[in-house]
Amino acid sequence: MSIINILVLLFAYLLGSIPTGKILVWKLKGIDIQKHGSGNTGTTNVSRILGKKWGIAVFFIDALKGFIPTMLAFYITQDLNFTLLAGFLASFGHVFSVFLKFKGGKGVATSVGVFFALVPFLVFATALFQLIILKIYRVMSVATFSGIAMMSALALAFEPLEIFYFLIAFDLLIIFAHRQNIKRLLKGKELKI
Prior knowledge:
Layout (H helix, E strand, L loop, with lengths): L2 H15 L2 H10 L13 H8 L1 H26 L2 H16 L12 H11 L1 H18 L2 H19 L2 H17 L1 H9 L6
């Protein structure tokens, strides 16, 4: 692996690690998002604290943290596996941020950015499905789990196996990041939107 490739992977992780939600909430409200709501730095908790508009803004910025290194990696190498690895490291950085003592968000928005760069049709189809599930159940984690299941099925059906295999790795990362949500779901205590 060349030094440029190593730098791209490092850039992907560090960009993914930037805690967008924490910075925004601190700048606008002067509070530590990790001590409020779910304690998470991502879209849903930002929406609870600052409102839907700012939550959407954080979602798009976090998605860019996945989109940019994915596009960069593909532009430099034209290698799908390397590109997916770079994207995965961006999502990994979002969940395990070096700037937050290896804590962070749930990795969903950053992963959306990664796959939007590679398979936008799958992202749009999955997003539509998630919105329907969210409308029915009003629970973001249920919509998230439904979405990753749907996207994995679509990837298996329509995309190269490399994308499906890496998508499983993204799924496992997101499920791990949602482990507290899973516990609350099993107890019937998960928060509704």
